[in-house]
Structures are given as C-alpha cells and as structure tokens.
Design brief:
Layout lengths: L7 E2 L10 H8 L12 H14 L3 E5 L2 H12 L5 E5 L3 H4 L4 H4 L3 E5 L8 H8 L9 E7 L12 H13 L4 E5 L2 H8 L3 H4 L5 E5 L10 E5 L1 H13 L8 H13 L4 H15 L16 E5 L7 H10 L2 E2 L1 E4 L2 E5 L6 H24 L6
Helix pairs in contact: 1-11, 2-11, 3-10, 6-7, 12-14
The structure holds pyridoxal-5'-phosphate.
Amino acid sequence: MANPDRVVDLRSDTVTKPGPAMRAAIASAEVDDDVLGHDPTTAELEKRVAALLGKEAALFVPSGTMANQICVRAHCAPGSEIVLDRDSHVLRFEAGAPQLAGVGLHPLDGDHGFLDPDLVKRAIGPRNPHVPPTALVWGENTHNAAGGTVWPIDRLDAVAAVAHDTGIPFHLDGARIWNAAVASGEAPARIAACADTVTVGLAKGLGAPVGSLLAGRTSFVEQAWVIRKQLGGGMRQSGVLAAAGLYALDHHVERLGEDHSNARILAERLVDVPGIRIDLAATQSNIVVIDVEGTGRNPAEIVRDAERRGVRIIEFGHTIVRAMTHLDVGRGDVLHAADVLAEVLAGSSARSAASSGGDR
Ligand SMILES: *Cc1c(COP(=O)(O)O)cnc(C)c1O
C-alpha cells in the first residue's frame, strides 16, 4: 500500500501545525526589537511563564536544547560535572552540548528516570581536589526516554534537597512540565518549586511552532540573557513566536489530558501483541515506548512497515520504537493507529517465527 489514504503521525508531539486561531494570534502580535530592547509580546510571555513556574523571571529562547545549554553554562564551570539520570535528554539527545561547554556528565541509574536521593548524595561525595566537583543536579519531568513518566513530587523534592544540603543547585528540564502538571494534578509552580532553574517547552505538547523558556531568579536570567546572546539565540521581533506561545498556554494546556488518555488506549491495545513489551505503569502521559526485541526484527523495519500503512512512529533505541500522542491526533486517529500497529507488530512476530530457520 504505497499511498495510504489516512496518515496518523505519532513520531513526536512536535509535529503539530499551528491552526487558524494560533496563526491569527501570530498575525496580530505587537512586536519590537527584543535584542536592542524589549519586544512587548515576548515580555508578556516571559512574565506569564515566570508566574506559572513561581520564579522571579524567565527568558524566551529558540529551543529546549539552548535553554538547557544556557543553564549548564550559567551553573557549571569547565571541569565540573552534572549528576543526572543515564537516560536524560541532555545526555542522550542534545548532541554532546554540555561537553562543548567543558562540563562533564555523571550519569546514575534512575528508576523510570527518577533519581535516587541516596545515590545522588554518594555521587556528589565529599569535596576532594582529585575528582570533578559536582556543579549541578539535574532532573527531567516528564522523563522522555523512560516513556513520559511523571516524578512523584516527594521524590523530586528529596533529590533537590540532597543537592541543596551540599550547596549545589538543582535544575529541572521541564520540556514537558505541562504534561507532568496535568498528569499529576500538581501546578507547574509546585513541580518547579524545588528547582533553582527550570526549562519549559512550547513547541511540544502545547503545539506552538517554536520556542522554550528558562526561568529562575532575576540575577540568573540576566546572566542567561548574555549567554543566549553568545550562543546566537537573541531574536528580534520574537513576538510573532511568543504570541503563539501565549495562545498555546491559554488554549492547549488543559486538553493535554486527552493526549494522555489516547496514549493509554494505544498502550493498552498493543500490550498483548506477542513479542513486544510495553510498561503500562510507565505510560503516564503522552508517550508510548514499545520494546520490539521479542519480534526478532529491528525497529527500523517496523517503523518502515508502519509508515507504508500510514502510521508514523520513530526508532528510539536498538530495540525500541516510540509513539506519541498530541494536539493533531484525535481518538479516532489513535484507534486506527492502534489497529495498524497491532497488525504490523503481530505480523512481524509471525514472520520472524516463520523465518527462524535462519535466512534473515
Ligand atoms: C525535546 C526535549 C528537549 C530539547 O528541546 P528542543 O526544543 O528539541 O531542543 C530537552 N529536554 C527534553 C526532556 C525534551 O524532550
């Protein structure tokens, strides 16, 4: 089936396209030069996000990667290191950016992406001139690679407290903090309360075309402004982007619950397919991580077969594929995708059993 008549794109929640109302908000945005001075719409977005996160100030930047980078550079001197979960986005998917800043990463084995306070304490260790000093402890909520898991708030607070007890700041990568908030029922400000700095995204589940913010104390954001400039992230009439972000905050936060129930339905419909593994307990927001090892085929083949039948997912590890629900897929799309994926995955299992004689 070379040309499926229906395409459901579950590659990521970043594939959403701005609809007419968001485009109207973009078209009517008041703008000015935000590098020379202040763009009014960007300033409004920064103020709104700072308030939502319970921080003094926020700064608008082009991407989550840059937001994280600015925080790395603001907190960490070259030669120091960050204690974080082994599967953190910043470690696995940001092209080695912390290392460009001369900052080391000290990965720990998390549980569903959640750090263990005792292991963090041990990793920080007593001050010793022979070992890299820990400059920052890092958490990610929701945790992307763990399958969109949502930190229990006590656990997050406990990890941050271990950092703070030794005078080390805690950074929260909240690219999907809005999903964490809706899934847990905690306000974003409550989730971010333990963090000295936090990064949040607008172009993932919220459906804006571009943009992330970092937030923290005013003095931190002043420093961040300079680092953003050094990284080439100053944007002039950024109000056209900020307007989309404001629209997204007004209209696309509450509805994230729909994405979460759609992901749940997808996971439940696929979990019994022979040869695959889905951790239903970890399917807490809009991400479905599927281990296809037991099918005997590699994820690239499965992605290609699904794509041929109009369902787009991505390869997410040596034996893993990932599907994500979002604003632009409804319940009907997800039910259709579940049927197609179940057939693709079951077919692959049957085929690999049939070919176990060994001509693969
Ligand atoms: C996507 C993502 C980022 C990076 O955001 P970009 O805008 O793609 O650079 C950072 N952290 C997490 C947890 C993410 O999922």
